[in-house]
C-alpha cells in the first residue's frame, strides 16, 4: 500500500517546501527583472554615433524596410516613420499634423496614412495628399550606411 501525507508526514513537507521555495525564488527573480529592465534600458543608450540630441541613431536595417515599404520606429522618445521610396530612404515625424495621432505606411495605396481621420501623406515628400491635416509631415534627416538606417535625433 502507498503512503500518503497523513501516514508519512516526514516525506510530504519537504517537496512542498522545495516547491514553495522555488516559487518564491522565481517570483523574486521575476520582480528583480521587471525592475532592472527599464533601469538598464535607461542607462544603456541605443547603438548610435551620438546618443545626445543631434546624434545619429540606428533605427532599422534596410532589409527590415524593403522598397515600397515603411515602418514607424522610435528616435529617442519621438516616433519617426521611415519609408523606402523609389527616390531613396525618407524619414518624417510620425506625428500627424492634424491632431497628433501616429501615422503608418499603407503599402496598398503607397501613402502614409493617419488612422484617426484618414489623413494621407505623400511618402516621397511628406506633403498632404488628402484629409484634414493642415500641413505635411515634418521631414527628418536619414542616412543609410551599408544595411543600417540612421536618423539624426533632434
Ligand atoms: S489626427 Fe491625423 S488626420 Fe486627424
Compact overview of the structure:
The protein is of the alpha+beta class and 154 residues long.
General description of the model:
There is one protein chain. Strands 2-3-4-9 form a 4-stranded antiparallel sheet, with no helix packed on it. It has a 4-stranded antiparallel sheet with strand order 5-6-7-8, with no helix packed on it. A 3-stranded antiparallel sheet has the order 1-11-10, with no helix packed on it. The radius of gyration is 25 Å and the shape is elongated. The chain is built from 1 helix and 11 strands. It has 2 domains: 1-44; 56-152, Rieske [2Fe-2S] iron-sulphur domain (Rieske Iron-sulfur Protein, 3-layer Sandwich), CATH 2.102.10. The longest helix has 31 residues, at 13-43. The model is unreliable at 48-52 (pLDDT under 50). It is an alpha+beta fold. β5 (104-106) and β6 (111-113) form a beta hairpin. Bound molecules: FE2/S2 (inorganic) cluster.
Backbone shape: elongated
- Count of β-strands: 11
**SSE-based structural type:** alpha+beta
* End-to-end distance: 76 Å
Strand content: 25-35%
> What molecules are bound to this protein?
FE2/S2 (inorganic) cluster
Order of helices and strands: HEEEEEEEEEEE
- Which strand order spans the largest sheet, edge to edge or round the barrel? 2-3-4-9
Give a short account of the largest sheet. Answer: 4 strands, antiparallel
Q: Over all CA atoms, what is the radius of gyration? A: 25 Å
Kindly state the mean pLDDT as a whole number?
Answer: 84
